[in-house]
């Protein structure tokens, strides 16, 4: 698919548009932009006999996540629970919990509310956040980056974000199949509710035609925030060191280009493709960094399928599933060796050795595997079984009948969300350091380390996750995935 000249040309043109330097400097970007998150899950055949009840004990790492001390604003504290251990640190209930079927935890909106209150709002300014592409890791960051810029710009309107669907036949073709609603991946009601409750200064419109006086709208397409930067010795590819000047420059630029928005004459802003992984999340403080991404939760119907997978996985591992308690120790594996993986990414043996090392040291005897390469998936399962007696399975093997039908009715990218959720609940999660899909799961789980006070992720991992493989040269000086991905 990379040989496909059409896409290469298309992306080359975009990259040339993005900066004035030669596109070959971004050859890796070109490749990766096409393939990030490309994976599909294949069938595995393992006997699903039920062995003794959970002989492996329960993980102890996440027992205390619900404890809280009421030292932060009332809104976020559940106040009532007694800390299990003497907790000097506050661990807010917003965090994920590995022992239930809830993929989100409590929504904490006050950091967003605070940022929205600090903002000076401009009537008639509207952001359009739809020029995204790819899988969950990229789409999620694009929308969040766009909404964050919209807030910074004082945009009093937002068109409900949409998602560009990629082709089912050709997964490298990210652009041609048209726009899907936000609910294609996400919980739209939650997004609207959380925005209305915490950022009511920004009105959400269904379409651009719902903006008052839309007949008079001035459309700015292909906006690129870094174009407003003062290079100050660097070029515009550089790290966005001037976010503190962004609003000032943005307002000046609107005036100087005769685009001052007003209710009578609105102005809409749409990003150039691939404006993402460029807002350093810790700039807004740890509370905002830990919670902003929770605006985008996975679609509840897809969550239900993931719950069904977890229940079946529990049986597979010999633990009779309980209604609300998830009590099955397993290794989550995202093996990323599809044929589009790049030469400098960790290969099968580096990845599988890394994953098995974690399974062994943590004494995990069952693995949930997400992998688009059937041959390598089997290979991993066999090695894991031979060497460590680990039984491996995947979602398509676990589900039956209507539940399987519900899964296979989804598109390829939607099916990947089921893995995203199931892996997020694993006792220990392992994946390839180059995948934004993997990183996003890792960072979400990382919030379990200290709730709202969580410190920045440090590779290769924490008590919940291990990323395998070095991450040294990927996006050069364009994207900063580890700094700029909200959990
Ligand atoms: C793995 O599966 C095999 C074959 O079904 C079974 O005999 C064995 O007990 C299973 N091992 C574990 C750890 O569940
Ligand atoms: C659009 O602008 C024109 C003149 O600039 C004005 O006459 C008209 O009333 C405006 N329409 C709306 C819907 O605001
Ligand atoms: C997305 O951005 C690209 C590159 O800037 C542009 O060519 C394209 O028209 C945009 N697509 C949409 C739907 O706005
Ligand atoms: C599976 O991975 C191997 C290398 O690990 C690669 O040679 C092969 O092309 C891949 N197959 C698919 C279908 O991605």
Automatic annotation (TrEMBL):
Keywords: Carbohydrate metabolism, Fucose metabolism, Membrane, Transferase, Transmembrane, Transmembrane helix
Coiled coil: none
Region span, Disordered: 57-82
Biased composition (Low complexity): 66-77
GO biological process: fucose metabolic process
Name of the protein described by the UniProt record: Alternative oxidase
GO terms, molecular function: transferase activity
Record-annotated membrane-spanning stretches: 28-46
């Amino acid at each position: 698919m990379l040989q496909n000249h059409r896409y290469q040309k298309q992306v080359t043109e975009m990259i040339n548009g993005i900066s004035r330097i030669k596109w070959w400097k971004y050859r890796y970007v070109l490749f990766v932009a096409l393939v990030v998150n490309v994976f599909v899950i294949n069938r595995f055949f393992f006997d699903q006999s039920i062995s003794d009840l959970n002989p492996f004990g329960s993980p102890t790492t996440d027992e205390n996540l619900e404890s809280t001390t009421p030292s932060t604003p009332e809104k976020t504290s559940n106040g009532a629970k007694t800390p299990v251990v003497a907790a000097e640190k506050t661990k807010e209930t917003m965090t994920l919990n590995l022992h239930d079927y809830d993929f989100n935890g409590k929504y904490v909106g006050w950091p967003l509310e605070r940022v929205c209150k600090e903002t000076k709002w401009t009537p008639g300014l509207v952001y359009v956040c739809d020029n995204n592409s790819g899988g969950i890791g990229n789409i999620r960051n694009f929308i969040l980056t766009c909404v964050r810029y919209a807030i910074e710009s004082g945009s009093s309107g937002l068109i409900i974000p949409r998602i560009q669907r990629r082709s089912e036949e050709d997964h490298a073709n990210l652009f041609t199949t048209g726009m899907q609603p936000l609910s294609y991946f996400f919980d739209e009601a939650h997004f609207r509710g959380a925005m209305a409750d915490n950022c009511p200064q920004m009105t959400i419109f269904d379409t651009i035609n719902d903006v008052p006086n839309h007949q008079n709208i001035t459309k700015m397409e292909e906006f690129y925030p870094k174009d407003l930067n003062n290079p100050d010795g660097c070029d515009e590819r550089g790290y966005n060191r001037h976010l503190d000047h962004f609003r000032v420059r943005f307002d000046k630029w609107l005036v100087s280009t005769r685009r001052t928005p007003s209710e009578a004459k609105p102005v809409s802003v749409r990003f150039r493709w691939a404006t993402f992984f460029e807002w350093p999340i810790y700039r807004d403080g740890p509370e905002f960094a830990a919670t902003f991404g929770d605006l985008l939760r996975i679609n509840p119907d897809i969550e239900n399928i993931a719950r069904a997978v977890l229940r079946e996985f529990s049986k597979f591992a010999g633990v009779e599933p309980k209604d609300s308690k998830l009590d099955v120790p397993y290794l989550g594996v995202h093996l990323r060796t599809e044929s589009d993986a790049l030469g400098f990414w960790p290969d099968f043996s580096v990845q599988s050795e890394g994953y098995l090392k974690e399974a062994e040291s943590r004494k995990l005897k069952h693995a949930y595997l997400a992998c688009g390469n059937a041959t390598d998936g089997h290979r991993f399962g066999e090695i894991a079984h031979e060497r460590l007696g680990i039984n491996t399975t995947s979602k398509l093997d676990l589900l039956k009948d209507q539940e399987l039908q519900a899964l296979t009715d989804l598109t390829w990218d939607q099916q990947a969300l089921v893995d995203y959720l199931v892996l997020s609940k694993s006792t220990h999660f392992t994946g390839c350091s180059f995948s934004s899909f993997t990183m996003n799961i890792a960072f979400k789980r990382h919030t379990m380390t200290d709730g709202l006070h969580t410190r920045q992720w440090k590779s290769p991992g924490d008590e919940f996750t291990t990323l395998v493989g070095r991450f040294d040269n990927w996006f050069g000086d364009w994207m900063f995935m580890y700094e700029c991905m909200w959990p």
